[in-house]
Write a structure and sequence with these properties.
It is a single chain. The chain is of the alpha/beta class and 213 residues long. The protein has a single domain, classed as Nuclear Transport Factor 2, Chain: A (Roll), CATH 3.10.450.50. Strands 1, 2, 3, 4, 5, 6 and 7 form a 7-stranded mixed sheet that branches. A hairpin with a 2-residue loop joins strand 5 and strand 6. Helix 4 crosses helix 5. The chain starts with 12 loop residues before the first helix and ends with a helix.
């Protein structure tokens, strides 16, 4: 979010308590996904929440089922996450977090660790049952890949990576999906290689936060 959108430090106890609850919710949602707690993943969101990732767009229950299917097919990613800020206005909040998507794979029989660096952005709303996430979106930064054995050489043709997606911010991640039989990754996801797109997204999120949309 642009600098003018960063919230000031919380000073009243209610805001501090709300921020702690929302921060824990954001961290638990990723932990539950990585641990296979699919019902808890769905319950972290509102019924009408919209989730968008490199492989999915839809509601929380569909996302939980899709994640379960992905795990059953052998794709076990990890998602360490660190919330950077929680901006609360009334019963709405915006959260931006720094995160990674980590995946161990193999390229031509050579073991490798693939990491996608990303900022996760979520809306949250206060409900009768406490705060719940109302959206989940990634702003993709860059991907890296390295052999598990530092002395090994990955038989990776970079032209194949570039052909997997026109978007430099998540080409490697798109390539890894294709390697496991998933459809091509959309070319319109948020990424640092398209700063105007990211800026417009943040402006829309800020309007939502203040009830303008």
């Amino acid at each position: 979010m642009p600098e003018s959108g960063f919230p000031p430090p919380a000073r009243d106890l209610q805001t501090i308590a709300d921020k702690l609850e929302i921060t824990e919710l954001v961290q638990l949602e990723r932990l539950w996904r990585d641990s296979g707690e699919w019902d808890l993943v769905a319950e972290a969101y509102t019924e009408d929440a919209v989730i968008r990732t490199t492989w999915f767009e839809g509601n929380a229950r569909q996302f939980a089922l899709g994640s379960k299917d992905m795990a059953a097919r052998g794709r076990h990613s990890k998602h360490p996450i660190q919330p950077l800020y929680v901006h609360i206005v009334g019963d709405r909040a915006l959260i931006e977090s720094r995160g990674q998507i980590q995946f161990r794979t193999a390229v031509g029989g050579v073991g490798a660790d693939l990491t996608q660096y990303v900022r996760f952005v979520s809306r949250a709303v206060r409900t009768a049952d406490g705060w719940r996430l109302a959206s989940f979106e990634g702003i993709y930064e860059r991907g890296t890949i390295a052999p598990i054995d530092p002395s090994a050489v990955l038989p990776l043709d970079w032209a194949d990576v570039e052909a997997s997606s026109p978007r430099a911010s998540y080409q490697l991640w798109a390539w890894s999906h294709l390697q496991r039989g998933y459809p091509p990754t959309p070319a319109d996801l948020l990424g640092d290689d398209e700063p105007d797109q990211v800026r417009a997204f943040h402006e829309g999120e800020r309007r939502w936060l203040h009830g303008d949309s």
